[in-house]
Amino acid sequence: MAVEPSFPTSVSSLLLPSASQNFSSTLSSLKRSTLSVTNRLHSIHKDSLFIQTVASNYNLPLVANERCGSWYIRPEQKAGSAYFKSTDGHWGQWSFSARRLNVQILDMIVDSTRRGKSMPDALSKTIPIWCAVINRLLFEELHKSHKLGTPKEVVGASEHAHIEALLHEFVKNVKDLDLDICSLRSVLKKPLRPFWVTPNSTFTHESTPSTDYHTMICCTASRRVFGAEMTEDGYIQGAGDDSEGWSSGLTPTLFWRHSERLLAAVEEDIPSLIQDLSTTDQDHSAADSGAVKVGPTRLYLGALKSAAQTEQYDGIVTCGGTASPKPDRETKEHTGKRTLDLLCGDGKLGSRALRSQLPRIPPFIAGLPDYGSPPKILFVCPTGKDLCVGIALAVLCLFFDDDYRFSRRATRTSIDKALVRRRLATITTAKSDTNPSRSTLQTPPRIRLANTRVPVLFGVAWRTTWQEENGGIQNQQQIMSSGATTGQTMTKL
After folding, report:
1. What is d(CA 252, CA 110) in angstroms, rounded to the nearest whole number?
2. Measured between alpha carbons, how far is 300 from 315 in angstroms, rounded to an integer?
3. Which residues contact 143 (CB under 8 A, 6 or more apart)?
4. Alpha carbons 393 and 403: distance in angstroms, whole number
5. What is the pLDDT of residues 212-249, one digit of tens each?
């Protein structure tokens, strides 16, 4: 007969069920307290000191890889933003993003990552891919610059080889965008070469500029944590990552503007303090009032503040922010300039609402004053980087031919993904800080235009009959796939 052991053989035999549940609850509570907002802000501040040291050592401007990188750079030291996605460097998903060309970046890129990695994939793989593709595109004769460079301590030989095998296809895809290669090369002048710095690095890179390369410093802000955060005395690796889940409306600009108060506050007071700062000190740092011209057109992109200069434009299209409550408001200002308020909010909801507003664009464009040249049109949204980009992209696709000649009627008979990518590249090259969301850029692969059928763009379908009356164009019927009212029929193409 078997004899039961006199000592416990499992956790369940060590603890009563109620005690086991309490133990699990205690562990969860400890983890939450470790990942508190207070610990995050103190960790960000500590990591920012390292960034300042690196910046002083290399004497290069600081560029934040958004959105995480901005937390580690004081606003007065931030020279710009880049958008290199970590997902483009994930295993098996290696890619060169035609959506964000980042052609303006030649400096020191700051980013961070959460526990488990020594540096984010955006720095270890996405940027090296970008450098290699740009070098092959702009400096075809300099074969030494075509090689892929990755940090050996992070990227293994097998993964490196897999990525390098894809570079030729990435270059081909970028060539299809019809970029102005000569103009880009005149700005860049030398090939790019990535160099990596982490808190565990020894500064070996010479700060003297190389005569052969532009060296891009890929700087990881946070030191690597091995094991659980609870063993780190409150330090959180990559504390600025995924800020939507913990910031409660706090932005990097607000944090640095009030860092002393926030760092001195106890955890219990942080939520009310953030709410107070968000209410009393509005962060308008991302909304530059200057408008930017889009390529060889008379289209401009800007933040809402740009719309105050109405006398400079023949038409202004406003997306989000201060939309008029009247659905069909199209007013004529005393200056003779026309404005169109598209009824969409901000963020993802605004992007979705944008699709239902697109049918209002053709009659608005057609009704602008004709002075014998293409109208000068300004597209604005709260940031000047998202919603207005979607509308400007639609106008570029529908009202401009391959040579960017403007027509007041949407006469293009075929719009495919390749055309959309080329037009988007024109926008991002002109305004490098554009950051349209995936929802804003959702575009079906094929758009057709016929006498009784206007194609789909950004998810909108509508049936229409164009009728010219007194020099204008009348849109007799609109049927929208988003926000259609009762009794309307949705057209699927």
Report:
1. 14
2. 10
3. none
4. 15
5. 899 999 999 999 988 766 666 789 999 998 888 899 88
